[in-house]
Design a protein that fits this description.
The chain has 2 domains: about 220 residues, Jelly Rolls (Sandwich); about 110 residues, Arc Repressor Mutant, subunit A. The protein is elongated and about 75 Å long. The protein has a 6-stranded mixed sheet with strand order 1-2-4-9-6-7, with no helix packed on it. Strands 3-10-5-8-11 form a 5-stranded antiparallel sheet. The chain is an alpha+beta fold. Helices cover about 50% and strands about 20% of the residues.
Length: about 325
């Protein structure tokens, strides 16, 4: 499916939408007869498991039916709700949330929510994924050797879990829309290599979301919280030579203050972050080169091969050779 054909495809009335149009008042789709209801937070609501739909898929993409509403429900997966066109009103655990074209809402598992009546122009796309797909698989796809990616993914996941949802408002420049268009084309009209292509577009989607999350999460306190990302960037670029003292001097902090600040913001010590960056770089070399392991150890700053093995196995619970074999490089 070509991008220029996608809008026509999405605007075309589905069989479900035709049935809803024939009804004089909004009603639920017949499929709700087969969706179980559970008591949650003192209320009866539907439980979406997506078991069969996601049995052989990493992600599940859906265009919500128009001319009806989505009743209060919870689901066992993480959901992205994207307003492709028009608008929608969600009620999330009793809080009303108005969304317009280009907005994204990230919903954690087991969050009660509903979506109000959708009209002709209201094209709402949902993307469901298992929680492990967000918290584990994406770290490697986004670049497991990047401390910033690891930090932002963890912060994003914890934020979404704590606040139940995250709203990303449309920006003037919106590459997310084009990325989602490609995801829809690959999903609804699969071609050769559609599965890896879909994975690649999901990585691009998360990259853009992480960029937006970084800007909206740290801009509120420019004198403090945003600096942790710059410190992580410093460690990424100077992991061979960086010390607590050199980093403190670079950012104008006392070493003791910087040490406590990093621990508070990331949950790890400066030394642990340096080791994480070195090991992430080692994984990159193991996956993408045929360098002997002792050379890789030297390239990331370890002359003591035994110490390198010890740190690697403590972090990944396998030897460097086993890691390389798992990546198909053995």
């Amino acid at each position: 499916m070509k991008l220029e054909e996608l809008d026509v495809f999405l605007m075309k009335h589905t069989d479900s939408e035709k049935r809803h149009l024939q009804n004089k008042t909004p009603s639920l789709s017949p499929r709700y007869q087969f969706i179980p209801q559970v008591e949650f937070a003192g209320r009866q609501m539907y439980l979406f498991r997506f078991t069969s739909l996601m049995e052989n898929r990493r992600v599940c993409v859906n265009k919500e039916s128009r001319f009806t509403f989505i009743p209060e429900h919870i689901h066992t997966v993480i959901e992205f709700l994207y307003v492709y066109s028009g608008s929608c009103t969600q009620v999330i655990d009793g809080r009303q949330l108005r969304m317009t074209q280009g907005d994204i809402c990230l919903l954690d598992t087991n969050v009660p929510h509903s979506v109000g009546y959708l009209g002709e122009q209201d094209i709402i796309i949902t993307i469901e994924m298992q929680k492990e797909y967000l918290t584990q698989g994406f770290l490697q796809r986004l670049g497991d050797n990047r401390l910033i990616n690891r930090f932002l993914m963890n912060a994003l996941s914890q934020h979404a879990a704590h606040d139940q949802y995250l709203l990303f408002k449309k920006r003037t420049e919106n590459p997310i829309h084009t990325i989602i268009q490609h995801i829809l084309c690959e999903y609804y009209d699969p071609q050769i290599c559609s599965a890896p292509a879909l994975d690649a577009y999901m990585v691009l989607l998360f990259c853009e979301i992480l960029r937006q999350y970084r800007s909206q999460s740290f801009s509120a306190d420019p004198s403090s919280r945003w600096k942790v990302v710059d410190i992580l960037d410093y460690i990424e670029n100077h992991y061979l030579t960086a010390t607590l003292e050199s980093a403190a001097q670079a950012f104008g902090f006392h070493p003791n203050y910087l040490s406590a600040y990093i621990k508070r913001e990331t949950g790890r010590s400066f030394k642990e972050l340096v080791i994480l960056q070195r090991m992430g770089q080692a994984c990159f070399y193991l996956t993408n080169t045929s360098l002997p392991i002792y050379e890789i150890a030297q390239k990331i700053g370890y002359d003591n091969l035994g110490f390198f093995y010890k740190k690697f196995e403590a972090l990944y619970h396998m030897t460097p050779a086993q890691w390389r074999e798992l990546q198909g490089k053995g």
